[in-house]
Specification:
The chain is mainly alpha-helical and 145 residues long. It is 72% helix and 0% strand.
């Protein structure tokens, strides 16, 4: 995989994270986005139980979204291999948390989102699968684009 192709993959992952989390960054919009997830869950026939969001839950949701947004901007601006590895690791952690949440009664729709996360994680890790044996010798050259 060429460096420019891998940069595009990292940027696609960053764009996905920014678009997926932006609605959850502001309190009023996050309540609407949460309601949208409830609606999608119902349309898919899951009929999961959703708790009301209290102000503390909204605050935690908002700061988590802002962290994701900042991380997305960092990767958009600097789509390095190191950022790709960290992003893929974070995606795997998120999927594990999603599986735990679903096993505790959360909406199975989270598993649909988890499948997207896993696909992006594989693509972000994939640069190692396609590297040539003549890779740059220095550690810095191997990281940088």
């Amino acid at each position: 995989m060429t460096q420019s192709t891998h940069e595009k993959i990292v940027r696609v992952g960053a764009a996905y994270d920014i678009l997926a989390m932006a609605p959850f960054a502001l309190p009023i919009v996050s309540v609407w986005a949460y309601a949208l997830i409830q609606w999608v869950d119902l349309q898919l026939g899951f009929d999961s139980h959703f708790s009301a969001l209290d102000p503390t839950a909204i605050f935690l949701l908002n700061i988590g979204a802002w962290a994701y947004l900042v991380w997305g901007v960092v990767r958009w601006r600097a789509p390095t291999r190191e950022h790709a590895r960290l992003s893929a690791l974070l995606r795997v952690i998120v999927v594990v948390v999603q599986v735990v949440a679903v096993s505790s009664g959360a909406s199975p729709f989270l598993l649909v989102l988890g499948a997207v996360q896993l696909l992006l994680a594989v693509l972000e890790f994939s640069h190692r699968l396609f590297e040539r044996s003549g890779a740059p010798s220095s550690r810095e050259e191997a990281r940088a684009y």
